[in-house]
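Can't paste images in this forum, so I'm doing it all in text. The chain is below; anyone willing to post the predicted structure tokens underneath?
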Amino acid sequence: MKNNFGEGGQMKMKIAGILIAGGRSRRMGADKALLKYGGIPAIARVAAALGEVADPVTVACGEKEREDFRFLQLPQAADRFPGCGPLAGIHAGMSAAPSDWYFAAPCDLPFVSAAFMRYILDAWERSGRRAAAVPVSRSGKVQPLLGLYHKDALPKLEIALSEGKLKVMDWLAGLDVLYVPEEGFAGHLEGAPSPLLNVNTPEEYRAAAEWRV
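Text version of the structure:
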């Protein structure tokens, strides 16, 4: 696992990873985290990428620890705000591993790579190191569950959860965020799936599983 980012001797920093794996996968009808791409479960693909930029990596896995995720050999963190969605996962991960910075990643982005994560970190470094950095897809959709967050975001997160304000974008609106456009990522291969491709339905999975990336 590596905590450096960028090239050419850029600054090193300590980043803890949060692997968000608490979703219920209602539309998929199966646990999205365990669906395989190229023979590898989605959660393992994301964990490997996250481990290249963050250490430790903690699995935020919902209301209780998950036996299904033991094969990752990573620490798990149960939600302190069960049933409150992905914000509770980010909160659980931040609370479990004290750090100045956190890189979060959801388990249902099977084609996200360490290179794309470093692209976000490099953009953040060049921007003047704002409080958060998240990517924006080519279609203009913000992906707030993949990105860098400073520890100072935790108090606002806890307040939002305590008040039942569970919309991720509402929490994001209260932070100083750098929005990083996907189209600036030079590491994207022609014809390859987007690193921000979110797979939610059996039909989307059947199409995505044909890619060998």
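The chain has a mean pLDDT of 88. The CA atoms of residues 28 and 203 lie 9 Å apart.
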